[in-house]
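Same chain as my last thread, 174 residues:
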Amino acid sequence: MDFQLQHTVEILERTPATLRALLQGLSDSWITSDEGPNSWSPFDIVGHLIHGEQTDWMSRLRNIMEHGEAVPFTPFDRFAQLEKNAGATLSELLDTFESLRQANLRVLEELNLEERHLESKGTHPELGPVTARQLLATWVVHDLGHIAQITRVMAKSYSEEVGPWGAYLSILNR
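reply #2:
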């Protein structure tokens, strides 16, 4: 599929509701389960998405629009949520994520990006030159990847419970 900004927004605007439908009201054992040491729970993943809304996607897009390749992006701390969200509830995180995402999508719409803007380049601190189009496409794939990660973590919580059917459940082998 070729990149289209409207297709991008279609996914980005649905992610908060998807997460809410999947996670809201679940018992703690579902939202705090993980895949073992150095892995994230659904709670941690929502926190990570919040941190991205606050410091990554729109900050980097603004950086591209204002500075081009001259000013590299600020490195993103992929683990900031682990300390930052201690004491919060999942409901609070879902509300925060939804509010931040809505605000970011309003700003994105207000930018009235045209094709020429999407080809504008910035500098990623590790990857080098990237375009606004690539950044926005990555935002979508990042959302989808973490939705998949949440469902995988939750499925693996029942790895032992499914017994021999585990041989047919590919999600348990990822």
